[in-house]
Amino acid sequence: MAEKDLAKIVYQKYQARLRKFIARKIENSQDVEEILQESLISAVDCLPLYSHKSSFFTWLCGIARHEIADFYRKKRIKTFLFSHFPFLENLAFEALTPDEKLEKEELRKEVRKVLGALIEGYQEVLRLKYIEGISVNQIAKKLRITFKAAESRLSRARESFKKIWLTDKLKIKNEK
């Protein structure tokens, strides 16, 4: 049987169950689809290694777990690189496809909207830390408060941002 035919059979038989398995671990539906595709491709490539020690679906779930771990690892690396080397984000943004640029711009709008919903003090401290990229010590000096007060305000601002962000996401999810 040709690899193409085998891939089609695996996809038709297991994609729905595997998608549900992945969706329980990943919230974003586009990420679920990407991980599903990567998992199925890896499964077809590794089919000669399947040893029949477990059910085929259990084996597929193992591959999906690895793909999920890779997804989070890449996401962590990207976050680290962009936070430490902001110029890389600009380079990556220029290289994005139109759809990705649109998604990134929509994300920026959502972030601005949530920032706008925060009290002024929280807006300022988050802007200084994450947009201007200055240290907590520099924030304290700029705002003429103690280091501990700046740390505390930043922590409360993050929590407030997170609460509003999650509330908005939950509203959107419930509307669908």
How far from one another are the termini?
Answer: 42 Å
Q: Based on the structure given, which CATH architecture of the largest domain is correct?
A: Orthogonal Bundle
Q: Please tell me the total number of domains.
A: 2
Tell me the fraction of residues in β-strands, as a range. under 5%
Largest sheet: none
Shape: elongated
State the low-pLDDT regions, or none.
none
Order of helices and strands: HHHHHHHH
Give the C-alpha Rg: 22 Å
Which bin fits the share of residues in helices? over 70%
CATH superfamily of the largest domain: RNA polymerase sigma factor, region 2, helix turn helix motif
Mean pLDDT: 83
CATH class of the largest domain: Mainly Alpha
CATH topology of the largest domain: Rna Polymerase Sigma Factor, Chain: A
DSSP strand tally: 0
Task: Decide which structural class fits the backbone.
Answer: mainly alpha
Fold topology:
Layout: H1 3-23, H2 29-46, H3 56-84, H4 86-95, H5 98-117, H6 120-131, H7 136-143, H8 147-175
Summarize the structure.
By secondary structure, this protein is mainly alpha-helical. The chain contains eight helices and no strands.
Describe the overall structure:
The protein is mainly α. The chain folds into two domains: 1-95, Rna Polymerase Sigma Factor, Chain: A (Orthogonal Bundle), CATH 1.10.1740; 98-176, Arc Repressor Mutant, subunit A (Orthogonal Bundle), CATH 1.10.10.10. It is 84% helix and 0% strand. It has eight helices and no strands. It has helices at 3-23, 29-46, 56-84, 86-95, 98-117, 120-131, 136-143, 147-175. Helix 3 packs across helix 4, helix 6 packs across helix 8 (147-175) and helix 7 (136-143) crosses helix 8 (147-175). The longest helix is centred in the middle third of the chain and has 29 residues, at 56-84. It starts with a helix and ends with a helix. The model has no long low-confidence stretch (mean pLDDT 83).
